[in-house]
Prior knowledge:
The complex is a heterodimer of chains A (209) and B (282).
Chain A: E1 13-17, H1 25-33, E2 37-41, H2 44-49, E3 52-55, H3 69-78, E4 84-87, H4 89-93, E5 97-98, E6 113-116, E7 125-133, E8 147-153, E9 155-156, E10 163-169, E11 171-179, E12 182-185, H5 193-208
Parallel strand pairs in A: 1-2, 1-3, 3-4, 4-12, 5-6
Antiparallel strand pairs in A: 6-9, 7-8, 7-10, 10-11, 11-12
Chain B: E1 5-13, E2 16-17, H1 32-42, E3 46-51, H2 58-72, E4 77-80, H3 86-94, E5 99-102, H4 104-108, H5 111-120, E6 125-133, E7 152-156, E8 161-166, H6 167-176, E9 181-186, H7 198-207, E10 212-215, H8 221-229, E11 235-238, H9 248-258
Parallel strand pairs in B: 1-3, 1-11, 3-4, 4-5, 5-6, 6-9, 9-10, 10-11
Antiparallel strand pairs in B: 1-2, 6-7, 7-8
Helix pairs in contact in B: 1-2, 6-7
Amino acid sequence: MEPRSEGADRRPVLAVVDYGAGNLTSVLKGLSAAGANPFVTVDPAQVAEADGVVVPGVGHFAATRNINDEMRVALCAATTARPVLGVCLGLQFLFEGSEEAPDVPGLDLLPGHCFLLPKTQKVPHVGWNTVEVSVESRILRGVPDGSSFYFTHSYAAPVTDVCVGWTTYTVPFASVIEVGNIYGAQFHPEKSGEVGLTVLRNFVALARS
Amino acid sequence: MLAKRLIACLDVRDGCVVKGVQFEQLANAGDPAALARRYNVEGIDELVILDVTATLEKRRALDRTLRAVSAELFIPLAVGGGIRSEDDAAAAIDAGADKVALNSAALEDPALVTRLAARYGSQAVVVAIDAKLEAGSGKPEAGSRQPEAGSYAVFSRSGSTRTPREAVEWAREAVDRGAGEILLTSIDRDGTRAGFDCELTAAVSSAVSIPVIASGGAGTFDHFYDVFTAGRADAALAASVFHFAEHAVSDLKTYLHNRGVPVRIPHSALRTPHSAPRTPRP
Lengths: 209, 282
């Protein structure tokens, strides 16, 4: 980790939690481009020290089994003081659980269970889809209503009162969440062009402040 | 609404784009990163780097290209051509590719699809299928696995080697083995600019639950409309058609939008014909 400096151009140190769910190269590149100094970790102590935390991940919900109890405690503790962003599977992990792996508990920071998208259209849901911005939020500052982001997932989180942006693919689901220090994006902001970078810059700014 | 994707394919040899490009104001038309940047501004939804290198320096040149492109572009990036093994795939992904497209390697070792899906997730594994309409007559010999006349035979090794597989069946097997997308190329149409093979594309797209990217034959804007409607394609890939004109990608998206096909039109690609340059914001 680089020494911290003060000021509006400070690059906040972001812990990116590695639990073996896919490739982290793109997430790291996106966060760096958005002005952060990200590093990959499996160490709860490093999560406790970072300015912000990112829980990425693609694939099966069962992969979150690799997040051990110490890391779960560290992630929950982090949300009391610093911003935590779940991306894709990382967003789903913030909820109570998912029907994809009913025996694996989620972090239970948010009420609700993730569900399989109805197979009346192709599942997985892959490609660019629009996000309806339902209320003003910090994470979507500067993001126009109806902007397109890149998705690739089969399971989704329910639209609840923590949802600040939602998307419809057969059914509506929560594509962006925000409550307190907890943020989540079902899409991949690191693969969603300029508007995706705006979301990442917003998160980096939150980690900086 | 989920948009139909337009994917630009860059054929790259030894780090340079090999197909001629005619963009004005592009200092180095052979530079993949410069071309990728241009497409990104135009609103391309995804890029495929197709490695057609045949030298020993292959991987190093490909890695440099992937690193250069992924360093500044934040849209999905796939790599195809020459991914023969798990190590090749790992190298491409480490260099910045989000997806790897397997063709001959998947036909020779279908379990490679499963291994890569387990390691990187299905979304990172594209199975590329090169298919050709069977012109033969009569039924195949009893017990043979030869595709019947009127079906589509799968070819490997850049279309040079006919395999005993049939395209729809191979696509289904690829899904079962963990593929996240199918990149489907019509050998009959490739390079003809006569239009995508909508029958082939619809047959495969209807048979699988994952996205099908149509490739081969793009020549006019109509061809894209046809493959997104009659062809049931989820995405369409082209190379040279995007080189025709300065604004081919954004003009094509406007055309599709006006015909009712859902497409993504990012802010950077919004323009009106013959408009003056925008006034810079303070």
